[in-house]
Amino acid sequence: MGALTVAVLLSLAACTSARTRHQQSAAPGSSAQTSAQVGSPQVGAPPSTHGSSRASSAPESSEIHSAVPTTAKPTSAPPAAGLPLAYPTGSATRVITVVAPSASSTVATLQGFEKVTAGWRPHGQAVRAYLGSAGLSSQPREGLSATPVGSFTLTLAFGRNPNPGTSLPYRQTTPADWWISQSGPLYNTLQRCTGSCGFTQGDPNEHLYDITPLYNYAVVIDYNRAPVIQGAGSAFFLHVAVGEPTAGCVAIAQDSLTSIMGWLTPATHPRILIGVGR
CA nearest 104: which of 129, 135, 61, 130? Predict the structure, then answer.
């Protein structure tokens, strides 16, 4: 066999080997691709209390894994989208949605959203929220432990503890602070009284200073606040959860609440949207 023939055969063998390696490294089942998919962040997905995990596929071969290096994907902002509840948002550029699976549910998912050019972008992680023991209602009233549905402004905050960093008007409560639920001109307002008061210092009014840890921090939900309808329900707040349904308020973990309070600002005209998911 001549020298020229041997050289040609060696060249063909080298091309075949290189093409084979390229096909192996590009195969869709390679460990490099599997690692990139499993490691990608799922932005905006609500946390589950019954999480599960899957083991990633083992590399097909150490040669292929080392031949195709992987690089971490940069974390990007969540994509903008519509809100999960079809309620008006007015001039708000920051909103909180509280989405329940049904009208009778006593738990829901709370998520912050910020308005951007393309729509609404999720802010922070979705968290578990507790609702009234009677679920949701479009017609709340005194004595019914249901959370009102709809879109409500958030303009005032309070708590027994010092201001956690919110720029909303914040009142640190004292033993003189009450939320009024008795009928009359003060119905559904926060009142401070140190002497002879124009309201009952007891039921049905709430002594805010004593109700802990629920009112360690709270944001007033402006349901039935302007105008006020007597008997249509009062004292609806976003407050600290204790792991059980409420008397009609929305409750979340204290750390989540203080984080959200720090995010709410008067300039963004914040609102809370409460309802059943679409």
Answer: 135
pLDDT at site 273:
98
- CB-based contact 65:31 (threshold 8 Å): yes
Residue 277: partners with Cβ closer than 8 Å, 6 or more residues away: 84, 85, 99, 100, 101
**pLDDT category of residue 77 using cuts at 50, 70 and 90:** low
Let me know: does 275 contact 149? Beta carbons within 8 Å.
Answer: yes
- CB neighbour list of residue 144: distance below 8 Å, 6 or more residues apart: 132, 134, 137, 233, 248
Q: Is 22 helix (H, G, I), strand (E, B) or coil?
A: helix
Could you give the C-alpha distances from 231 to 81, 116, 155, 253, in angstroms and in order? 38, 39, 22, 30
Helix, strand or coil, per DSSP, at residue 80: coil
Longest dimension (CA), the chain: 118
Using DSSP, state whether 255 is helix, strand or coil.
helix
Pairing of strands 94-100, 107-116: antiparallel
Q: 260 with 254: CB under 8 angstroms? A: no
Beta bridge partners, 98, equal 110, 274
β-strand partners of 159: 172
The helix (H) or strand (E) run that includes residue 253 is none
Place of tokens 């949605």: 97
Please check whether residue 201 is in contact with residue 178, taking contact to mean a CB–CB distance below 8 angstroms.
yes
Tokens 């204290």 belong to residue = 254
Residues 69 and 35 sit within 8 Å (Cβ to Cβ): no
Closest CA to 234 of 254, 220, 245, 244: 220
Q: What are phi and psi of 15, to 5 degrees?
A: -65, -45
What is the reported pTM?
0.72
pLDDT digits (tens, 9 = 90+) for 131-140: 999 999 999 9
